Amino acid sequence: MEQIKRQLCDNFEENKRKKFITKSDCNVTQIEDLANELLYDIFEYLNSYNIYQSFFRLNHRFRSLLVESFLPLEIHIPLISSSSFDSYNQDMIMPNKQRIHSIKILNSFMYDDEVLSLLNKISLRTLILENIESNRLRNLLNQLTSLSYLSSLSIITVDQVPCKNYIYREVFHLPSLRYCRLSLGNHYSLYLSTSPVNEQSSIEHLIIDYEIKDSELNNFLSCVPQLRRFSLKLSKDYGSTSTNIPCYVLNNLIHLSLKFSYNITFALLEYIFINHFPFIEILCISGNLTSIDANKWRQLISMHLLKLRIFDVMFEIVLYNDNQKAEYEEQVKLFQSSFWIERQWFFHSRLDQKLHSNRRILFTINPYRRKNYELHSEVTAENENQIIFKSVDLVQIQNEMAINQCMDYFPNTTQLTLSDGFSISTYRSIESGLNRILPLQQIKTLVIQCHHFSFLKMIKLLSYIPNLDTLTFQTMPLFKENKVSIEQNEEFQSLCKTNCVTTVTFRQICILDKVQILIILFPHLQHLVMNIQMKDMELILRFLLNKNNHDLVLLSFKPASGTNCITNITIGGTCTLEKLELLVMLCPRLQHIEMGIAIKDIGPLLRFIVDDNNLNTRHLISFCFIDSNSCSFQHLTVLLSSKILFGKWKVLYVDKKSKLFLWT
Questions:
Q1: Fewer CB near the last or first residue (10 Å), C or N of the chain?
Q2: What does 615-655 look like in DSSP terms, one character per residue?
Q3: Quick check: 5 pLDDT over 50?
């Protein structure tokens, strides 16, 4: 009887378990069960290429969702192989060219005439071109004339564009363009055309992320009469600026952001504001001035900039003697007069010892829109009232003295940088001082630039930053401690259990012992960037790829179960064929490699890479050879033209960065 009862009991429990599983399964929703409308909502949060990779070949329904939809399509082209792009282009881009509203290209090799065409993309509204060579621009810009709906354009080149006139001519001629950002590098050999490119340019928001000479400004502004927002960098023209020619006034401009890196005179600024921007309402200006004169600024604003309501400035000035210092302090007091207070424009002055012991910074604190703030030690405090900087997200601190002297508070800071001036002492605590000026509990990113910041001191500091996600530090001096004593330290053991750091960058050359300490200290580590010598690479990689380090994502890529999935590796030193063979054996899913290489090793190394019998290199897409020169480029070009390397390869040399790129 007991045996029968036990069997009944077992059956009862088994039936109960099955019912629970069945009930649980009923509550599980598979992605295939979601409505089309909900799937489209999900797709809005995903990269278009990732959507294609994940869903296009899943089944007929998902393929139809991607191809047969009438919704606008945003195309994102990252660094992928030519074969992957060909499939993406054939399956998604070409059949949907009428739907494409946005294209963003990050891959330098996509700008080849045979690869990318903007023709027939008649619905395109937004175009972002990054990492493009200047010699590829002309052909691409010629295609823009067919894009009658293009309203947003961004162009960021990898090198300097020597002559920009043809770019202005094509861009300013686009009939529907409203937003434009140009980052074309600084080049001063050629001037703008003296005649307007297009008097009817429709651009309303323009960002020029390179320097324009003040003598070119008038001609430039005549090309964009509809501007409402303008951001530019002003360069000194050491010739005289002519005041005899008529000045072009931007009647619609209300927002101006102006930066300059040289010591500009107030007279030139006054001339620019009066003759070009008299109707601005918002002025953000930063740079070096030869002198500060509060009365001249007051007269300029009250007589010529009558609509100005936001005055956000940061001026830097170097004072060379006591008379200049006394004059400066007097001018700072004049900036506290009723004229400025009535407009809610409050100024603050700080001593900046970062670049020059006599450098002063004068800036507005309300409205204070800057996201970054550098805190330096001061000989004397020029304003002892506490200021609360609500908008500052990143605070950089020079040394302990800067903390002790600081009277201000940064309530919303999430990023903290400690500069190289901090003490090596382990017994001096900085945590309480830091907490006085900013909430350490909010810090997500910490950068320690000090080369002598002790490891135990860093551990103690991290214990006060419980929500830290990203850590960057220069060195790991252990002094009298060793790996065993560090791991037995109570603060070390406590921090291991409480921290949630996922990203670590260690800039010093790292040996195996220190890597092991980092892995133990940060159990949730996903991204690790470090500098290792080739002789230590095998031991360190084998340790990192150990199955017990299942959370680790080396260089920003996650490992899959059973094998690592490292796809991106940068090697600081010169790489030989023997070292590369070891690298691809340990990391069989590599896609991108950045390394140094001797010219004599290019041929053997590339033959190894393209060998069809080498399964460990089948995922490789691109190579970047650092510290390269034109000789390396010519040698690689010869290899490609001689068909020594099989397959479809493209080569790109960026002289400005001394980098040679190879892509397949």
A1: N
A2: GGGTT--EEEEET--HHHHHHHHHHHHTT-S-S--EEEEEG
A3: no
